[in-house]
Inverse folding.
């Protein structure tokens, strides 16, 4: 499990934010982001990467029904709950681009960690990864943290006010460990918000 870190802080003389992760923490973040990218591309509505940009921009052949996966349902809720036809039309025009945007945001986390020196399979327990983000990249990370927490929270069945349930689980319970990661992501998100304020 990730240990509490200092989270994100702002450099005094610049608008950049900084965080230091253990190799385990950085690898965990990379893995979570990669799983989200895979999920986003696992169903239809994904724009092919080798398509002409103008063709992709004018393509409104996205899905008209809600995704089957509960996480994707939370990431892409129906825009019009009382009007299935309008919801389908809205989804057809927007979901493909929304998926691509969320996948690109998660990929930014992966790329940033790789560029910061995270090896493909970290084995050095003493290794730390220093991440420095400009304002634009930090906002991308922030959006992706929201998606990651929503995905993990949906998988776990997290509900408002259910903290007592999670804290009552033994530490070795896999669900408790996953919830700890969920809370850690929330901590990173909160410190990033504060660093950007």
């Amino acid at each position: 499990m990730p240990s509490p870190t200092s989270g994100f802080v702002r450099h005094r003389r610049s608008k950049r934010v900084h965080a230091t992760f253990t190799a385990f923490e950085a690898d965990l973040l990379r893995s979570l982001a990669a799983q989200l990218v895979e999920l986003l591309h696992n169903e239809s509505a994904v724009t092919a990467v080798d398509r002409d940009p103008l063709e992709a921009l004018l393509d409104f052949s996205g899905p008209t029904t809600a995704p089957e996966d509960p996480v994707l349902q939370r990431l892409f809720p129906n825009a019009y709950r009382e009007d299935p036809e309008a919801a389908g039309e809205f989804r057809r025009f927007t979901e493909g681009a929304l998926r691509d945007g969320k996948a690109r945001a998660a990929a930014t986390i992966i790329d940033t960690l790789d560029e910061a020196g995270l090896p493909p399979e970290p084995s050095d327990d003493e290794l730390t990864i220093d991440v420095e983000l400009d304002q634009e990249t930090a906002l991308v990370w922030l959006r992706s943290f929201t998606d990651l927490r929503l995905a993990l929270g949906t998988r776990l069945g997290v509900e408002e006010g259910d903290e007592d349930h999670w804290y009552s689980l033994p530490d070795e319970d896999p669900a408790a460990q996953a919830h700890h990661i969920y809370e850690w992501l929330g901590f990173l998100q909160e410190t990033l918000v504060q660093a950007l304020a």
